Amino acid sequence: MTGNNLIDIALIILFLPLLGFTVTLFLAKKVKKIYLFETLIIIVAFVLSVILVFLKLNYFPNATTTSEVSWISLGSISIDLGIMVDNIAVLMIFVVSLISMLVHLFSIAYMHGDKRYNRYFAYLGIFTFSMNGIVFTHNILMMYIFWELVGLSSYLLIGFWYEKKSASDAGKKAFIVNRVGDLGFFSGILILFATYHTFTFDKIFHQISLGVIPFNSEFWLTVTGILIFCGAIGKSAQFPLHVWLPDAMEGPTPVSALIHAATMVAAGVYLVVRVFPILTSGALEFIAIIGALSAFIPATIAITQNDIKKVLAYSTVSQLGYMVMALGVGAYKFAFFHLVTHAFFKAALFLGSGSVIHAMHHEQDIRKMGGLRKKLPLTYATFLISTLAISGVPLTSGFLSKDGILAGTFAFGNLTGQWFFAFVGFLVALVTAFYMFRLVILTFHGEPRDKEKYDHAKESPFVMVMPLVVLATLSIFIWYTPNPFNPEQGAFLSKWVKAPTIVTPQDSRYSFLKSDEAQPEANVQGIQNVPTPSSTEAANSGEEITFSKTYTEAMEHAHIPAMMLSLFLAGIGILFAFLFYQWKKLDADKLAEKINPLYKLSLNKWYFDEIYDATFVALTLGISKVLAWIDANIIDGIVNGSATVTKMFSSFTGKFDNVVVDGMVNGAAYMSGFIGLMFRKLQTGKVQTYIVLVVFSLVILLFLFKSF
Amino acid sequence: MEVGLNHFLFVSVCLFSLGIFGIVTRKNAVMVLMGIELILNSANINFVAFAKYGNFGYQGQIVALFVIILAAAEAAIALAIVLNIYKTFSTVNVDEIDTMKD
Amino acid sequence: MSLYDIIFYLFAAITVLSAFFVVTTRNIVYSAYYLLFTFFGVAGIYVLLGADFIAVTQLVVYVGGILILLLFGVMLTNKITNVQIKTGTVKLAPAAVGVALLAGTLFAGLLNTNWKTFVADVPASTAHTLGLLLLQQYAVVFELLGILLLIALIGAASMARK
Fold it and tell me: HSE on the CB side for A610, CA within 13 Å?
């Protein structure tokens, strides 16, 4: 039993779904039952990942195994492909393959009768493959490649019912919005590569710990961190790029559970977890602010939404914001903890909503539901457990992780005097409890509001209920810690997840992330204090202690008050939800009228789509329109006036060939007309024009970078 | 002046520029393909020239061989595409095919 | 001026001149024939560079295969009754300027670069060595290319058949 076996198993897990995808896609039309093959493949992958988790955590809890092959070697630079198996990766792979398997099973019943049934499973396969790639990769370039691959599979699955215009639009929106973030991500990667000539995480960390930083300036290290985080902003739907996720709910519900709740959107958080060691305090602060905004804004939107999936989508953004904020304030372990627990209970919620939607014959409006708990007892029970978890009620996993994050923000406030994050954290906890219980009450309690659909509703078949039960079971505290009030006592946080070695220069860290050299504290009881050498690579040649003693103590002090406060707030939120919607002591409609502007703001999602439409989209359209107008009016105005210059320009660009005068020949208009023409004519649709442009740009580039 | 690396590169640059010129100016899609073949040939001359003058052993020649294979595949596919274009638009004049604009 | 130089200039002239006619002649069929001379000239240049196997491959594949394909392309996409198979040109002037700029830049670049040249011995024949390399070090690439070619041909056939 050596580390190499781990690599072998990891490779098999990685490539099995690809095999499933290929076979399923090619035989989709020929073999009706091919989806069973894909499902079987995923089950095998899941079993293997259980074995992998078991072996890794039992036999090599402190080692990181990597294996790499050289892909491209250019002189002294070598671009490697490789996989890395460490604790975080195996935990993540367990989450991914478990949820993927459950979603496959769930989809067998949910998607039954769809005309592209087999292709749907093939897409799930390619998604699982790409997600596994993100998890196992040991370098940031492969991460980027798989990052785009999950983006592609997400696009395919959101627009799976592409006959519906809203679905195909949502797919495009997700793709384009993600591109914005990925642009930043890629720029960050390029900066790293330009500085370190390698993509491998360990090597980059090692060089940073030796003091090599981009452009010799900590500012640029911060910028690099923020740029890489941009990828996470896009993929994890963080503010201000969160707008795609709610629209992505146009996809099939199991897909929403797998991709847009549990795994792919968590990839952004996973990315930040991976690059955490290189983030400076500036970058972390930026991350925390983005996280806080993403936690707060969608939470307020979720209160007024009436589509069951939209509520869950906004709560997903909000919870992801939590994780990101936790990373930003340095609560690394709890961020990852919350990622795992959230994956389970949010997948349960989404699959539960899928079960409800299935029973209600594709009705998603919660105003037309109600009373469903009698018809769907199992769905109700699992949904309720997951809701308790997301609201942070004791005995659930969500309570543990959320409490940890809140304690983290508390400790952060204590140490730095910035209480903003703690404030947002607790506020969101309150709001979350409220809207989640609003959802439960409106869906499952009270009287049925659509009698006909209610009468036809019946509990979903076994393959749909089983995943719910499994996921709800995983939302109980016992899997993570024996003591429901102290997550630190469980193996998950004390043995498995370890804080990484921070490599950024000392004075660019948060004060509490500085290693206090005076006291080696490897044995202090408490939180982030067991950073055993976590890597076989040279990355830990720097100091091994990441979080200082002050921080550890602050976390311990923050634990109890944070727990009390969060419990209290969750209680208030739940109480209000019952007052409003169950007992009708308070009237939600009247309140909505009283605070109409706020209500409207929330109902219309803070007008983000409108703002983007009015600014970016409208700006682009506006510029094109103005240019087109100028163009149309000036086209005629050129032959007569100053013919020679015109001809020179026209022969030079080939655009002015047959223009006619209109009458607005004056200097300024002429210039703007010229520019307008140039921009508009860029889109001639003729390949040759594009090639001419490429040639010119090539010449310009050659001149820019000329070495002679 | 004795013939050296620069001479070969010179020929290669000429071929490359003429290829680009052909691609950009000719209307007929088949002519565009001929331009592409010229460019591939110019790249190949570079590979082989550097194989001789650059102390790379046989790598350059191997790559040149691969390029020829790829060019064959490319020509086959491209002509199939041209035939399809002809069927769809009843013309192979690339300047008349601008549906990409819409 | 040695014999080697004279032969080089001869082939270079054939290559460049015929390439020039390829892109300027209005008649496509003529263009194709000029292309034949270009390929021939390039093959000659390969021989001068000591790459005899590549030169033969060039002749076999380009002249025997690709050129014939191109001619078929010309014939299948023009009405045969149209005796003068001509083709117009577009945007001559800007293209000429752009290409001249590009060529000038490239020339300037290569003239100003200090190449570290190293003249290898020219073996009598490269076929033996290349064969060994292809089937040993580059065996996988070689096989993959074979598969690619097969796929391309099948794909082309099925696309053209539709």
Answer: 6
Full DSSP string of A592-610: HHHTHHHHHHHHTGGGHHH
CA angle (A429 as vertex; A427, A434 as ends), nearest 5: 100
Same domain, C89 and C129: no
pTM for this model (two decimals):
0.69
Instruction: Using the structure block, give the residue that is written with the tokens 């727990």.
Output: A563
Chain B contact present for C23, CB below 8 A: yes
- Backbone CA torsion sign across A284, A430, A349, A363: negative
Other CB atoms within 10 Å distance of the CB of residue A165: 9
φ, ψ for residue A512, nearest 5 deg: -80, -5
DSSP for residue C27: B
* Domain match, C23 and C82 both: yes
Per the structure, the complete domain to which residue B50 belongs is given by: 5-90
User: Does A659 have pLDDT greater than 70?
Assistant: no
Asked whether the beta carbons of A641 and A670 are under 8 A apart, the reply is: yes
Residue A661 has pLDDT above 80, yes or no: no
pLDDT band at A664 (very low <50, low <70, confident <90, very high): very low
How far away is chain A from the Cα of B1, in angstroms, using its nearest Cα?
Answer: 22
Closest CA to A403 of A434, A424, A383, A426: A426
d(CA C123, CA A52): 55
Whether the CB-CB separation of B35 and B19 falls below 8 Å is answered with yes
**SS3 of A239, please?**
coil
H-state helical runs in chain C = 3-24, 28-48, 52-57, 67-76, 92-112, 127-135, 139-161
Total structural domains in chain B? 1
**Which residues form the domain of C45?**
1-93
Indicate the SS3 state at residue A548: coil
Q: Is residue B15 part of a domain?
A: yes
pLDDT above 90 covers what percent of chain C? Answer: 22
- Residues from chain C that touch A699, judged by Cβ atoms under 8 A, are 98, 101-102, 105
| Cα distance between residue A502 and residue A508, in whole Å | 11
Looking at beta carbons, which residues of chain C come within 8 Å of A652?
93-94, 97
Is there a domain that residue B12 lies in?
Answer: yes
pLDDT greater than 70 at residue A665: no
Closest CA to A237 of A123, A142, A319, A143: A319
Q: Of A275, A305, A322, nearest to A443 (Cα)?
A: A305
Number of H helices, E strands in chain B: 3, 0
Q: What is the mean pLDDT of residues C123-135?
A: 84
User: What's the N-to-C CA distance of chain B in angstroms?
Assistant: 55
Q: Using an 8 Å Cβ cutoff, are A276 and A339 in contact?
A: no
- Note the pLDDT tens digit of each residue in A133-150: 999 998 899 999 999 999
Q: What is the pLDDT of residues A193-243, one digit of tens each?
A: 888 888 888 888 888 888 888 887 888 888 999 999 999 998 888 888 888
pLDDT at B41: 93
Taking residues A157-167, report their average pLDDT. 87
Name which residue leads in pLDDT, A481 or A118: A118
Helix ranges (H only) for A258-376 are 264-275, 281-302, 308-328, 332-359, 372-375
Chains that touch C (3 or more CB pairs under 8 A): A, B
Q: Quote the pLDDT of residue C33.
A: 87
Beta strands A65-74 and A77-85: pairing type?
antiparallel
Chain B, residues 10-39, CB within 8 A of chain A, namely 20, 23-25, 32
Question: Comparing C-alpha atoms, which of A261, A274, A262, A268 is closest to residue A236?
Answer: A268
Q: Are residues C11 and C87 in the same domain?
A: yes
Q: Tokens for A374?
A: 């009698």
On whether any CB of chain C is under 8 Å from the CB of A651, the answer is yes
Q: Is the Cβ–Cβ distance between A372 and A356 less than 8 Å?
A: yes
Q: Judge if C79 and C141 occupy the same domain.
A: no
Decide if A683 and B97 are in contact by the 8 Å CB cutoff. no
